[in-house]
Amino acid sequence: MESTMIIPWVLAFVPLIILMMKKINGQRRLPPGSLGIPLIGQTLELSKAMRSDTADECVPIGPSLQQVGIQQRREDALQQAAGVGEPADGREEFVSDDGEDHRRLRGAILSFLKPEALKQYVGLMDNEIRLHITQHWHPDHVEPLMKTLTFNMICTLLFGVERGERRDTLVRLFQQVIEGTFALPLNLPFTRFNRSIRARSEVGAIIREVIREKRAKLETGEKGHDLITSLLTMCDQDGLPLLSDQEIEDNCTVAMVAGYDTTSGLLTYLVKLIAEHPNVYQLLLQEQEEIARGKKEASDPLTWEDIGKMKYTWRVGTEALRMYPPILFVFKTVVQDIEVGGYVIPKGWQVLWTTCITHLDGSIYPDPLKFNPSRFEDQAAMPPHTFIPFGGGARLCPGNEFARIETLAMIHYLVTRFTWKLCLIENTVSREPMPIFKQGLPIHIYSR
Ligand code: HEM
């Protein structure tokens, strides 16, 4: 072949070669590690690890996942990755909205859950806890007790639903909704997912009924102290309702799902950790008795000021959240290519940001497996995004203050009224996806 004829052939292949080089380069920059089986990825390994509560060991297996854990500590991580959480029945709740809608809905819920607003509800929370302790705290299993407490707390403060048949129906239905949230999305009769969808629709009907009742009360000038009433009274700049009834219904459901198992998980772990660390119990008692002594009458409820004095108690809560975060990871969709440690995570990937990689990192928390509340003596000095049980950025949990007050008030009454011992030496935990004590954490409890 003449040389003049070879040149056009070579030139014709140049763009193809460049394209191939680019592709290879692109692939090289992806985080290394297996993506698992097509379509289902590493879901099976992760589910197995969750059930045996070893997901913190499993997650770093895929370097791609570990890289995301590292990225979590960078200030910009959560702003760059926007969350996508599809509710079981495909409704548009605000966790799955982005941009303007998310900000509007989040703003509405936050105006009820921000500390300045919650201040006035400490008395209501106190009342709910006292009632709960009087009715339920006998020798028993801690986990179901804590679930009863957090459910009742949400029913009173968020829904304004009285004790009785309607509340009992709601607790059964919500349990089914939660079970389906992380189930395989198989909408066939008798699957968890299908049961969850049906339960969600029954919950919707009850909440709509509650909304109608609250609206009627507002029209007669009666005020309510709950989230639904507060959302019903919010208006935009034109004086029109800020949220539709559908949005109120959907977001009450989200708040219940997000706030029920999480806070009860934290409280259950706290009972276990306090029993295992008698020195911690003594320090808690000292702080809480000091607060109790400051009351004129033993029956006086806790106040916002009392909550502010519970510094050591919250250090204990914080350390429990570090070691045993109720939410181990959250899925996010990467909305634009991000570079982490020299690798590119491409737009469109589903990634997990995980709490455990950061919380158990010895370079941030020396001796990370030791339960040591004093490591949080100077929390303000800690680098940003090193303590992330409530997430961070634009989607930071809006219920964190609600959970903090509820936890502190409950610990106050537990340590000042009781001592307790664990019944079992080994209390195995499964993550479904919230931590569940398989035997329910049985304890022997003694009045003080
Ligand atoms: C110990 C208790 C709790 C923990 C550990 C916790 C943790 C979290 C986490 C990790 C997220 C996801 C953040 C993200 O996507 O970046 C979240 C979101 C959320 N949480 Fe909590 N939570 C707790 C209690 C509560 C409570 C009591 C409520 C309501 C009263 C609540 C309401 C919500 C809501 C509405 C969201 C969605 C926020 C959004 O997408 O903008 N949480 N929570």
UniProtKB/TrEMBL annotation:
Keywords: Heme, Iron, Membrane, Metal-binding, Monooxygenase, Oxidoreductase, Transmembrane, Transmembrane helix. Its cofactor is heme. Heme binds at C397. GO terms for biological process: sterol metabolic process; terpenoid biosynthetic process. It is found in: Membrane. It is a single-pass membrane protein. One of its GO terms (cellular component) is membrane. Belongs to the cytochrome P450 family. InterPro entries: Cyt_P450, Cyt_P450_CS, Cyt_P450_E_grp-I, Cyt_P450_sf. PROSITE patterns: CYTOCHROME_P450. This is Uncharacterized protein. GO terms for molecular function: heme binding; iron ion binding; oxidoreductase activity, acting on paired donors, with incorporation or reduction of molecular oxygen, reduced flavin or flavoprotein as one donor, and incorporation of one atom of oxygen.
